[in-house]
Amino acid sequence: MPTALQTSCVVTGGARGIGRGIAELMVARGHHVVIGDLDGWAAAATAAEIGAVAGLAQDVRDPASHRLVAEEAGRHGALTAWFNNAGVGDDGTLAELSEEQVRRLVEVNLLGTTWGTRAALAAFGPAGGDVVNIASLAGLGPVPGYSMYAATKAAVVSLSTSVNAEAPRGVRVHAVCPDGVDTAMLAAQDPAGLGSQLVWSGGPILSVDEVATAAVSLVGSRRVVRAVPGWRGGVVRGSAVAPGLMQHAARVFAAQGRRAMRRR
């Protein structure tokens, strides 16, 4: 049985990328970290490598999987932090995406985050805790070439702000909104696609460590939404005020992105 001083933490999609970075930082902070990932073998291997207490197979589209991960975390200490990191990044215009891709984006990015948030709220003790949802800069304004992905991430931001306002005392819900990050997800996207070109137009691609650090910094804070980098968040929010202009500006930004990709 865990002692009263032991705390646990859940990281979904934690076998690699941003999720692994978050898990490593939370282990370093002294939390008993449970990693969930669709690839159960990779989750277990990562847990062993970084000192997490468990790595489990988890399909975030299934609400029951979140309850099982929460139960596992509860066996190792009081649950005080939950990171909804699992996500998919299918790029392409709405007309280009298949029905399967659209459903997967909604079910993993939005519903997966929704089920994880509900499970965390139910599992937190009297002292409360923090839910940190990994959204995206694409969720703060119009991003052509990422229309469906952006829609799911905008929904994650809205979910986070709304649930934070309705959550009981001691519970905080946050959304971190990073620009492009150097992960396998970004590498798998079409470099000729408009979405990828816009990502590369915004300056240096973020490292996993930068985003993981930003996500972990929200634990215990009152900040609800954090864009990384902050200045880029201001630009994207500004485009949301006049979305019609983005149709014309996108061509200029895409050209900048193509040049940046050629220089890498």
TrEMBL record:
Gene3D superfamilies named in the record: NAD(P)-binding Rossmann-like Domain
Name under which the protein is recorded: SDR family NAD(P)-dependent oxidoreductase
Family (UniProt): Belongs to the short-chain dehydrogenases/reductases (SDR) family.
A UniProt-annotated Pfam family: adh_short
Keyword list, A-Z: Oxidoreductase
Organism of derivation: Nocardioides pini
Residue span(s) of domain Ketoreductase: 7-179
